[in-house]
Amino acid sequence: MQLTVPLENGLMPDKYAKYAPAAYRTQDMPTTNFPITITAIPAGAQSLSISLIDYDAIPVGGFPWIHWLAANVPVGNVPEDLRATDLAVSGTNSTWHFVQKCQQPANPAINQAYIGPMPPDKTHNYTLTVFALDTQLALQDGFFLNELRTKSQGHVLDMAIVELPARA
User: Fold this and answer.
1) What keywords were assigned to this record (predicted)?
2) Secondary structure of the chain: what % helix, strand, coil (to 5)?
3) How far apart (Å, rounded) are the C-alpha atoms in residues 120 and 90?
4) Calpha distance 76→1 (Å, rounded)
């Protein structure tokens, strides 16, 4: 399986990250995902799952930052603004941690959505992983990464990883 994501000058396009225009934002957060072209999906794949994680966030905040989790994505290319299609199940990203810590009400439009890269210190590499699965996973909106990993065990037909740099 191979993944292709559009880049501009070797970086994630601004419209999907820190410098996204207003139309690509929710409550001033970039919430419109980039499209993904996927080739060589294995026969028998029934769904895809997606994660986008910033491991370069560890020196800044102490843990990897989860930007996007999606499951039960239809097999094929992933469109821009997947959440607007209502075709997949959305997982919880790392903004949830701060909502809980500050005792604020959760907002699924932010906490269970793609949150574009906003590196605070320098260009970060974001790890995009797509799994081809032999089933639909028993997950509901708001699932966590550990649930995705557990439910995926024994169902992964193939996976692909690509590093996507985004500017500070």
Assistant:
1) Protein kinase inhibitor
2) 20, 35, 45
3) 25
4) 11
| pLDDT, tens digit (0-9, with 9 covering 90-100), for 105-140 | 778 889 999 999 999 999 999 999 999 999 999 999
What confidence score (pLDDT) does residue 91 get?
A: 97
pTM more than 0.90: yes
Residues in the chain: 168
Judge whether 79 and 97 are in contact, CB under 8 Å. Answer: no
HSE (side-chain half, CA atoms, 13 Å) at 45: 24
pLDDT at 165 over 90: yes
Q: How far is CA 134 from CA 49, 90, 129, 164, in A?
A: 11, 19, 16, 27
Helices (H), 17-141: 58-61, 82-85, 95-101, 108-111
